[in-house]
Design goal:
Layout (H helix, E strand, L loop, with lengths): L2 H24 L4 H21 L21 H9 L8 H16 L11 H8 L1 H8 L6 H16 L10
Helix pairs in contact: 1-2, 3-4, 4-7, 5-6, 6-7
Length: 165
């Protein structure tokens, strides 16, 4: 902004501040309050004049790409689990299903295979299988239960079912 325009905006804000301060004082406000209101209007005008038509910075901050080896899936999963009314969003359900798929694959089971459904229900419990296959409302407590069952799966000593020794 040019110096003349800055001076003009500052002058008009000073005039407006003096007018507002005078009106407040005239209608019975104490003079310190009226003076503070006038100074506040002048300060707002100076701030407005300083940011009006501001140029972009010379060096724009580049977008941050994750470095190789950094782990961002935990924070992404945490954000995807937050939904309305304690419900888990669709992306959270997809991440839970992908985690279950990788956990069950270690046991030779496939979440999408109907032939493995009975074995998965036996290993995980029917409630956890319902959370994985449900298209309706899934709450955080359902997800916590399913994650607990999947974590216990790693600790248990049940042998794999399909061809792995």
């Amino acid at each position: 902004m040019s110096g003349e325009r800055f001076a003009g905006v500052l002058t008009w804000s000073a005039v407006a501040g003096a007018a507002v301060g005078g009106v407040l004082w005239f209608f019975g406000m104490s003079w310190p309050f009226a003076l503070a209101a006038a100074v506040l209007i002048v300060a707002f005008g100076a701030g407005w004049a300083g940011f009006d038509d501001a140029e972009r910075p010379l060096f724009v901050r580049p977008a941050v790409d994750p470095r190789p080896g950094t782990r961002s899936e935990v924070s992404q999963t945490a954000w995807s689990l937050r939904g309305r009314r304690n419900e888990v969003s669709d992306s959270g359900r997809k991440r839970l299903r992908a985690y279950a798929r990788s956990r069950l694959r270690r046991r030779g089971l496939d979440v999408d295979d109907p032939e493995d459904a009975a074995r998965i229900a036996e290993v995980l419990t029917p409630r956890a299988v319902a959370v994985l296959g449900r298209g309706g409302r899934v709450t955080m407590s359902d997800v916590e239960y399913c994650l607990d069952r999947l974590d216990q799966l790693a600790a248990s000593a049940v042998p794999p079912s399909k061809g792995s020794p």
